[in-house]
Design a protein that fits this description.
This protein is mainly alpha-helical and about 150 residues long. The protein is built from 5 helices and 2 strands; from the N terminus they run ββααααα. The protein has helices at about 60-70, 75-80, 85-100, 125-130, 135-145; strands at about 30-35, 45-50. Strand 1 (about 30-35) and strand 2 form a beta hairpin. The longest helix has 14 residues, at about 85-100. It is elongated.
Length: about 150
């Protein structure tokens, strides 16, 4: 029989909840200090390292799962979320920030490759390419800076 908090038998249909990351009283980060085994009711006390991914919402976990399964293809993330490419990129950037991974050892986003004798483009051309998904936001920003 599985036991829950306080040694009381856990209801068979009870499901685990995600613990809060922050203290509801003062807002400081909470520490994991107790672990228990459902099979034998053993308990361990101490200060344990918590998982940064455990505090993600269901939507953030889904975003991360789709990103990983699609091998980083933001177009797939965009389609799955049903949002625009810039919105998908922003949600991914927000996820990285929440995990404390923003800019941590990651290379800068690829920009448009330099093409020799590239024809001059107007702002409208660049924006149309962005709208069609031919270039990403960073490449569009680079090209718009060159246009002036």
């Amino acid at each position: 029989m599985a036991y829950g908090t306080g040694g009381y038998p856990r209801h068979p249909s009870a499901h685990a909840h995600r613990p809060p990351r922050d203290c509801p009283v003062c807002g400081a980060g909470l520490q994991v200090t107790r672990l228990s085994c459902d099979a034998c009711a053993s308990e361990l006390s101490g200060v344990f390292e918590s998982c940064g991914f455990c505090g993600l919402t269901d939507a953030e976990r889904d975003l991360l799962r789709v990103f990983l399964v699609s091998r980083g293809n933001m177009r797939e993330v965009e389609r799955h979320l049903g949002v625009s490419y810039p919105t998908a990129r922003q949600r991914y950037a927000d996820l990285l920030a929440k995990l404390g991974l923003e800019g941590a050892g990651s290379p800068p986003a690829p920009s448009a490759p330099a093409v020799p004798n590239e024809p001059e483009q107007s702002r409208e051309d660049v924006l149309a390419m962005l709208a069609r998904g031919e270039i990403d936001v960073d490449a569009a920003a680079d090209r718009l800076r060159r246009v002036g």
